[in-house]
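Example 3.2
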Amino acid sequence: MRVLIVEGNPDLGWVWRRHLERRGCEVILAHSQGEAVDIIRSDKIDIIVLNLILENGSAFAIADFASYRCPGTKIIFTTSGEFFSDGSIFQHIPNACAMMPSRIAPEDLSALVEYYGTPH
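Structure, written as tokens:
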């Protein structure tokens, strides 16, 4: 399974990446909108883990591009804020499948990635 993690915090992105790689995933880590769009444009991605709040770009722009370029690719959003705590993210982003706090345990994130990234 090919996973794209878009996370502005390099340390957190690295922890998630290493954990998913130990579970057998091929993981690509991006830190900005530009990097993420370039990866989506050039690689087949099965699932995206996307921080809703990015310093370098817009998570909505990435999600919108992913919806257009690879509409079957699910997106797990993470956030350290309270944005969209009412669940409205699912009304705005058609391929959003989960919204989790950034402090999610790596093993819980792995379980979500495996569930949503595997065709049912």
